[in-house]
Amino acid sequence: ALMLKYAGKGGASIYNTTIAANSATDTGGGIYEYTGGRIAPTSTPPAPITLVSSIVANNSTADAPDDIYLSDTYSLTISGASNLVMAASASITLPGDTLGVDPLLGPLADNGGSTLTMGLLAGSPALGVGSNPNEYTYDQRGPGFPRTVGGLTDIGAFQGTIAAAAPKIPAPALSTWALGLLAGLLGLIGWRRHRIE
């Protein structure tokens, strides 16, 4: 999980990341924006957050289900685009195109590469609707696992979209007349060969 503490410490810019299946004993299982207001009231505003093409989902806490939690009475507008966030504090405004559904993540597993990843399952709403503004070459797994495939980038750290298969070129259909002509021609060739032998 990610904890942002005090605006004076700066904020966070999060790109093509998956923050999922974390747990906390208090609040903010995924991202916890802490300004000191819960323990000692403060006038320090929340640190800014930019979230781009990232998943924050399925995190759990003891007393709040939020994947992104703001600790005090301030409000926070998160900038960015192309995200999937299942739950956030009411005082947080997410980018307008944020998806608020289950990302259909697989369990943390060896999906190739040097680190364990949470793959996107078939039918995931995160497939093909993300962005890659930093032009990353690879997803979290590294070389051999492209970040963008066929012009499509998935939301999160894992690229599950695969290249479309080459279209099959159908065999040309022959009309009944053409089939009859072909049959006649083949018959004539067979008859001539029979006479020669």
Overall morphology: elongated
Report the sheet-strand fraction.
25-35%
- The number of helical segments is 1
Instruction: Briefly note the structural class of the backbone.
Output: alpha/beta
In which range does the helix fraction lie? 10-25%
SSE arrangement:
Layout: E1 2-5, E2 12-15, E3 18-20, E4 23-24, E5 31-34, E6 49-52, E7 55-57, E8 60-61, E9 68-70, E10 76-77, E11 79-81, E12 84-85, E13 92-93, E14 105-109, E15 117-120, E16 148-149, E17 152-153, H1 176-196
Parallel strand pairs: 1-5, 2-6, 3-7, 4-8, 5-9, 6-11, 7-12, 10-13
Antiparallel strand pairs: 14-15, 16-17
Notes on the protein architecture:
- This protein is an alpha/beta fold and 197 residues long.
- The chain is built from one helix and 17 strands.
- It has one helix at residues 176-196, and strands spanning 2-5, 12-15, 18-20, 23-24, 31-34, 49-52, 55-57, 60-61, 68-70, 76-77, 79-81, 84-85, 92-93, 105-109, 117-120, 148-149, 152-153.
- The strands form seven sheets. A three-stranded parallel beta sheet has the order 1-5-9, with no helix packed on it. A three-stranded parallel beta sheet has the order 2-6-11, with no helix packed on it.
- It starts with a strand and ends with a helix.
Gist of the model:
This protein has 197 residues and is an alpha/beta fold. It contains one helix and 17 strands. The chain has a three-stranded parallel sheet with strand order 1-5-9, with no helix packed on it.
